[in-house]
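Researcher: Here's a chain I'd like modeled. Treat it as a single chain, no partners, no ligands.
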Amino acid sequence: MILFTVLFVQALILYYIWVYFAMTFFHSIIKGGLASDITSISLWEKTIKENHKHYPGMLLLTSTLALILLFYAFMMLIPSGIILYLLSAQNQLNQQPILYAIGFINILAILALLVKIIFAVAVNVYEKMENIDCIKKSWHLTDGRYVGVYFIVLLYATGVFALNYLTTIAGKNLFINLLINYALIVPVSLMLTASIYLNLKKNPDNIKCPINAPDAIKYTRTTQES
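Model: Modeled as a single isolated chain. Structure tokens:
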């Protein structure tokens, strides 16, 4: 019970930090943001002021998105559980490949929903909408371009999984895993989200998503200026 409480509190603290970092990042890459002069005290004060103003709303939005994904994942477990129950009666059947297939299908389904709602965070920062409107805007943002965005997110998720797997089997060093996740994967994920969002806003017919970090920051700046 004590271990669970400690892990829960730790996860909660990391969540609060992640939300604040996400807001700081999104505010930084707009025209006149921190990315233009990270040493500017006035820009830091401006960014912190904006964060404090909208932080409660962002916490509520990200919590809502997390609950939506958890509920969706739980609903996916129902048919998976039924299949596993039926398989348990088949003693002669090799169940392991089927278990992997079910897990893979569930991941694809969760990503399918994630692509529809993930841009609500960027909409909240850039367009200052109410939370429900942010989710609605994100849902319709990929209309007509969903397949392209989905495969970009799928490719990135595959890379993240492969990177975590390789670091795990290489040394099983918790510090290295945390460093990779919070110093590399989180910033790149936010950059990818902002870049795709701005592309969706600017290019109604195609998706051009720079993965290279400097190119992405440069692209998001010029997109905001135009």
